Automatic annotation (TrEMBL), chains A, B:
The keyword Metal-binding applies. This is Farnesyl-diphosphate synthase. The keyword Transmembrane does not apply. Its cofactor is Mg(2+). Belongs to the FPP/GGPP synthase family. It comes from the Bacteria. PANTHER family: FARNESYL DIPHOSPHATE SYNTHASE. InterPro entries: Isoprenoid_synthase_dom_sf, Polyprenyl_synt, Polyprenyl_synt_CS, Prenyl_diphosphate_synthase. Keywords: Isoprene biosynthesis, Magnesium, Metal-binding, Transferase.
Length: 297, 297
């Protein structure tokens, strides 16, 4: 399949849906809505929404079953980036080559824009027409999965341990694994899993998708760590080697670059194995999984 | 009725439920869970949860129908206080006589504790046993109401305009009213309205409760403004006159103290009128409404 064309098409689909779901720049108070939109439409690759849509289709659902939830997931991802970039957190001035939210709108609005995006995700997930479409028996567990993975026992927990580990010299593999499976992995797993729930997966399909989501979530972050070392500044949208400069807990720092690459490839194989019971309909998920480690080379 | 005893009893009920719903201090990462609990259990009066429970009972529901949602509402209220107190926002060192969250745990953890509490609210609202109890046909619209009122067109929007108005000398009544109905009023309205939805209100009862919630939401904030001027530091848990010192947009600043008091009393009358079709079962709501303005004297 033409993965590039597929990803591009899905990106446009998600962007159009986000455009409709988010409050407009002229909705009052306009400053907060401008700030929310600035970061949502900052050229993200929509990895999580694309995974959610693909998982939904792989289990027999149609795109529209997962599209509002996919947008909600991107809102949550965007809020986490805005807050991570704040001076009190990673203190980043640039993200994807553009000034970070607080650099443009100030710290207070950036905090509130993150808060509002997180909240907006749950507004989108509860829209009456969406409930009418997919039914509460799918929507409520999918929403709960997303919330749980975004919270203190998921993404936020990963960010906490990441911060607390920064600059420490004695970080072990278990800690790096905790950070990766929570900070990045949790939302990726939730994307795949909630997409499958919304698409009407049975127990076996949901278990397979959960395994797939967990595994590529970790592979994705290891590949990111590798890219931070080997990628160009243009490729990664920030300075190459910034993790190392900051003393971040990464896979390569703990187990070396070669072993990290081997592990990433191995995880992709495990992820592909999890999909063995699926046919053609899971091909996009397989291609995305392969692409994750191919990025590094 | 013995309002004080009633409020105290309800407070204990909500505190016990919050205790069970929130991750424990020993759940990893413990720093974030300590920070979340520090602010949730900081002696708040649980006004919003109490209103939600009372609204649920007034329309014929039972306590348990609204209790998890009431806890979710308190988590959202607490997150908003943590973020409002941050250096980039109101920069407050004390809240209810105790050091603010960021003073104890640092800014990064305070931001994340707020994020996690907001997220935890939606985890609580989607708990499988809660869905099983009240049914998705009540839970989904109640959740959506809470999310909408907490977001950029509700509470966050009110905070944005409040910040943008600070120190300006030419604030008009419409702006103060916008701030009050959004920053404080939205969550109070959502508490009453979602409590009524969860209790199984029919259309007429829901409309009456919505009117009641909107009106006492505004009355509550006007009474707060008055208390800031007339109350003792002990009564309000922060320095008296701090709104004025900060050039905050308040009712007394725009229309004077006497007219503000008259307006607060008038709003309580309107709120009580909205409940005229209810009998004994709405007595707690009536007593709470009366108490709101009585606080000022």
């Amino acid at each position: 399949m033409d993965l590039k064309g597929y990803l591009k098409e899905r990106c446009v689909l998600v962007d159009n849906a986000l455009e409709k779901l988010l409050p407009g720049e002229n909705d009052l108070p306009s400053s907060i809505h401008r700030a929310m939109r600035y970061s949502v439409f900052a050229g993200g690759k929509r990895v999580r929404p694309v995974l959610m849509l693909a998982a939904c289709e792989a289990v027999g659902g149609v795109l529209e079953d997962a599209l509002p939830a996919a947008c909600a997931m991107e809102m949550i991802h965007t809020y986490s980036l805005i807050h991570d970039d704040l001076p009190a957190m990673d203190d980043d001035d640039f993200r994807r080559g553009r000034p970070t939210n607080h650099k443009v709108f100030g710290e207070a609005i950036a905090i509130l824009a993150g808060d509002a995006l997180l909240t907006e995700a749950f507004i989108a997930l509860g829209a009456p027409e969406y409930v009418a479409r997919v039914g509460a028996e799918r929507l409520v567990p999918a929403t709960r999965e997303i919330a749980f993975c975004a919270g203190s026992r998921g993404m936020v927990g990963g960010q906490v341990v990441d911060m607390e580990s920064e600059g420490k010299s004695d970080i072990d593999l278990a800690t790096v694994q905790y950070i990766h499976t929570h900070k990045t992995g949790a939302l990726i797993k939730a994307s795949v899993k909630s997409g499958a729930i919304l698409g009407g997966a049975d127990d076996a399909a949901l278990a397979a998708m959960t395994k797939f989501g967990e595994t590529i979530g970790l592979a994705f972050q290891i590949a990111d760590d590798i890219l931070d070392i080997e990628g160009t500044t243009e490729q990664i949208g920030k300075d190459a080697g910034s993790d190392q400069a900051r003393g971040k807990a990464t896979y390569p720092a703990v187990m070396g670059l070669a072993e990290s690459k081997r592990r990433a490839r191995e995880l992709v194989e495990i992820a592909l194995d999890a999909l063995s019971a699926f046919g053609e309909e899971a091909e996009p998920l397989r291609e995305i999984a392969r692409y994750i480690v191919a990025r590094e080379s």
